[in-house]
Amino acid sequence: MKSRALAAIAVAAALNLFGIAPAGHCADTPDEIIAYYFHGDVRCPTCRKLEEYSREAVQAKEPGQKVEFRAVNVDQKENEHFMTDYKLYTKSLVLSRMRDGKEVRSKNLTKIWEYVRDRKKFLGYVSSELDDFMKAV
Amino acid sequence: MENFWSGFITALWLGILTSLSPCPLATNVASISYLSKKINHPGLVGISGLAYTLGRMTLYATLGVLLIHSILGVPEAAGFLQKYMNKALGPVLILVALILMGVVKIRLPDFSVSHRFQTRLADAGAAGAFALGFLFALAFCPVSAALFFGSLIPLALHHPAGTTLPLVYGLGTGLPVSLFAILTAVGIKSLGRFFEKISKVEFYMRGMTAAVFILVGIYYIATYILKR
Lengths: 137, 228
Fold this sequence. Notes:
The structure holds 2 protein chains of 2 kinds. By secondary structure, chain A is α+β, with helices and mostly antiparallel strands. Helices cover 42% and strands 22% of the residues of chain A. In chain A, strands 2-1-3-4 form a 4-stranded mixed β-sheet, with helices on one face. In chain A, a hairpin with a 2-residue loop joins strand 3 and strand 4. In chain A, helix 2 crosses helix 5. Chain B is mainly α. Helix content of chain B is 80%, strand content 0%. The longest helix of chain B is centred in the last third of the chain and has 30 residues. The interface between A and B is medium-sized, with 19 and 23 residues.
């Protein structure tokens, strides 16, 4: 019995040595970054543009900086909670950092409305916000 | 002191921006056609424009007080108004068109003002214009929600006279529409004078307004009720 436990410790140590963490060991799991675009049932032309530019800005990130883009309809019953969770009042782009299945940080990029008429400014704004968001611990 | 006045100017500018943005275009067209129908009496158009602006100011001021004093939550109010008011707008506009055409008749409540002033208000359609301003202000679209809930309310929360800012914002949303209504009335009047048919044009303006309301009503029903 004792030798089995010792063997398990030895295997775990070896895996750790090669940078392979066993399941359930969360400290080495990278944070997941999600960019949510929240919309409703009715999609106005400006709202479609907001989604298109947001998606473009997120997907333009280097492959090493993995960010997932999710378009969510808050008019659907199961998504209504996002309105109060993020204190939303209109179509919005929210960055969320998930760690071990829990959100540890979020940011609503409220200036997307200011830049929606200028694609270049919009992409630059979202890109720099994403960089800052990903750098922050 | 400078921040005090810049708060008012910003609120007014946000209101003007709301009114000029593309999403309330359909309701603005309906408002202009309703307000400008008394083409022979620019004074009456002015009165109804004022009443329409007051209607908008009343709604924004009420909503502003409820939000600033946290009686209402921003996400709840914004979500409810955007989800349900636009759905209600289509049928209401068609009902208003039926009232304008005389198909449906309603008795307006008496005002506690002098008979002469009351007649003048009724002639201008002031009660209707006020109600229209109030109703259209309730129907938030994505741009107006971003400007009101996202820019004006945070500004009002940090301003010494915060509760008055939604009033100024309401003034900003009503001014361009009222101005366009007066210009439209003057323009149509000149056109009528050119063709020497002013009285006839004013007679048809009521029908024109009803037609615009039906079209805008159909647009709202198609967009917010049927297209889901």
